[in-house]
Each structure stands twice: as C-alpha cells, then as structure tokens.
Design a protein that fits this description.
Layout lengths: L3 H11 L6 H12 L15 H10 L1 H18 L4 E7 L4 E5 L2 H10 L9 H4 L3 H8 L3 E4 L12 E8 L5 E9 L6 H26 L4 E4 L10 E4 L4 E5 L1 H7 L10 E2 H5 L4 H19 L4 H8 L3 H11 L8
Antiparallel strand pairs: 1-2, 1-5, 3-4, 4-5, 6-7, 7-8, 8-9
C-alpha cells in the first residue's frame, strides 16, 4: 500500500527534471538498486561472526576512534540521539545510546550489525554519506523508505591515510520534536569529530614522520602531510591529496615537501609551513606547551627545540 511519502518519492524519481542531490539519491535507490519505498521489513542484519570479522579488519582504527565516539555521545546522548560508527559498506560496527532509547534504536535497526548502505535502505544518512563521500543530513521524510521517516540522521565520512573512505560517523535522533536547525547544529559536531578521528588515524599511520599542516583546513578534512627525515612527503590526507593533486588510493611517490608546499626555496617553504603548524597548535592549547605537543604528536622537548630553531617565543610569538 502506497503512502503519500512513497507517492512523493516515486513522482520525484519519474520526473524528467534534474532535481537536487536528494532526488538523485532517491533515483539511485529506485532505479539503480531496485528498492520500493513502501518496503516494511527491518534492515538486513549480518551474523555475529561477520560482524566480528568486519570489526577485526578495523581493529586499530576502532580503538583509536573509541574515545572520540565516547566524547561525542557525552554531548548528544541526553538529547535522544545515538552515536554510530559503520565500516565503508555501511554496516554498523559500534553504537552508543541511552538505555531508555535502546529499544527504539534496536527496533529501527540502528544497532550493531545492521546494513544501512544505500543499496539496502535507499536514501539515508549513513548510506548516502558513503555513496557521495560527503557530509549529509537526512531529515525525516527525506529518507527513501517510508518506515524510516521518523528519523533524523547526521553523517560524515571518514577517510583513511590512503585517502579512501574507511568509515562513516552517524548521529541519529529518535525525538519527534527534532528540528532541522538542531540537526544542522549536531551535524557540525559530527563533522568536526570525523575530522579529528581522521587526523589521528593519519598520525598513527606515520608514527616516525613529521606531520605538517597545510595553510588552511578544507571542508572535507585536515590538510596534513607526513614528511620523513629527508623532508620527503610520504603520506597525505584526502584533503591534502586533493589540495596538492597527489591522487587517491595509492602509495605516494616520495616528493620534496618544498615542491608541494612552495617552490621559492626548500628551506623557507618548509619553515613557513612548520612554523604555522606549531603556532596554531600553541594557540589552540592556550599556550599550554604539553597540550600543543600532544596535538602535534611530538614530545615537549622536541616542540621547544623546533620553536627555538624557528624563532618562536614561549607564547607562540615570532
């Protein structure tokens, strides 16, 4: 039996107009994946063994992400929201929710092991975020499936050290009074948390490298380069790869950092980039050198040596 929501979806898909990104996702759901917006069964759930195998593939990454997920849940958990982490296929590997809300989220299939890919569930926060590789908000009747229209979902992709998508971070709300404005507010926190996880995963992938931050962050993530002892760039985040044309999904051929950051002279280009990274870290830490060193992934003594070499004073001034 069709609903007004299903009729709206079908009408939008069958229209000849180009439409928005949302209608493009609805079209993929119906035309490419052959889904019916009136379908009522719960999302598919993988076996416990399959869930364990999927978690094992991302074990180190999940360990690194756990504190960030806990912190995010502390911020949104009391507002009737759950925090979810999926793999690149949209399968939920970890979740957090208040006990009072658990039955609701389990009934919706927002629980470990359930498949929220666009191929399985049509337009939804997790699946569409993964399909399009971008931050998304899917609010209530923007979902493809009629049975999912009580949800508000805010999602951000997380890219691995090779620039390829590795996971998705989701906050979903079960509150009937969830507004679009509040969803946008939560979405900003989700995006920031995803960036932090991505940056930490990148630093962990290059433990012996010097990490240089680019002149400015981009909407899709931190611009970070991993530089070895010879000042050769051996790694880059997705945002850095796109900013400097380094390509995605492959091992980067080592290149002089000066060639990437600026050609005026190898020393001055590197020094400017490193000085900017150190000063930003010191400023963010409010002058707390221990905290600044932790953010940079170096020891306090190393931070002071670099500050001295670059002519940076105790408070981050030149």
């Amino acid at each position: 039996m069709r609903t007004s929501h299903a009729d709206h979806i079908i009408s939008a898909v069958e229209s000849d107009t180009v439409g928005t990104r949302l209608t493009a996702s609805w079209r993929r759901s119906m035309k490419k994946h052959g889904l019916d917006p009136t379908r009522t069964p719960q999302p598919r759930r993988f076996s416990d063994l399959e869930i364990q195998e999927r978690r094992a593939r991302l074990e180190g990454f999940m360990d690194l992400a756990t504190p960030k997920l806990d912190h995010l849940f502390q911020m949104v958990g009391n507002t009737g929201c759950s925090v979810l982490m999926t793999d690149r296929d949209g399968v939920i590997l970890d979740q957090r929710s208040k006990d009072a809300d658990s039955d609701t989220f389990q009934a919706w299939g927002l629980w470990a092991g359930f498949d929220w890919s666009e191929q399985s569930e049509g337009t939804n926060g997790i699946g569409t975020c993964i399909a399009e590789g971008r931050n998304v908000i899917i609010h209530r009747d923007e979902h493809f499936m009629s049975r999912n229209t009580a949800m508000s979902c805010m999602d951000s992709p997380i890219f691995g050290p090779d620039g390829e998508l590795i996971a998705a971070l989701d906050v979903s709300s079960c509150r009937a009074d969830q507004t679009e404005a509040y969803a946008r507010l939560i979405a900003g926190v989700v995006a920031q948390t995803a960036k932090q996880i991505e940056a930490e995963a990148f630093r962990a992938a290059f433990p012996k490298a010097r990490i240089i931050a680019g002149p400015e962050d981009r909407p899709e993530g931190a611009v970070l380069l991993a530089v070895d002892q010879d000042d050769l760039v051996i790694g880059a985040t997705r945002a850095a790869r796109r900013a400097y044309g380094l390509g995605l999904g492959t091992v980067i051929d080592p290149r002089p950092a000066s060639d990437i950051l600026g050609r005026d002279s190898s020393v001055s280009a590197l020094e400017r980039a490193e000085r900017a990274a150190l000063k930003r870290a010191i400023a963010r830490a409010g002058g707390n050198m221990s905290a600044a060193a932790r953010e940079l992934g170096i020891g306090r003594a190393t931070l002071y040596r670099r500050m001295k070499r670059l002519g940076i004073g105790e408070n981050g001034e030149n």
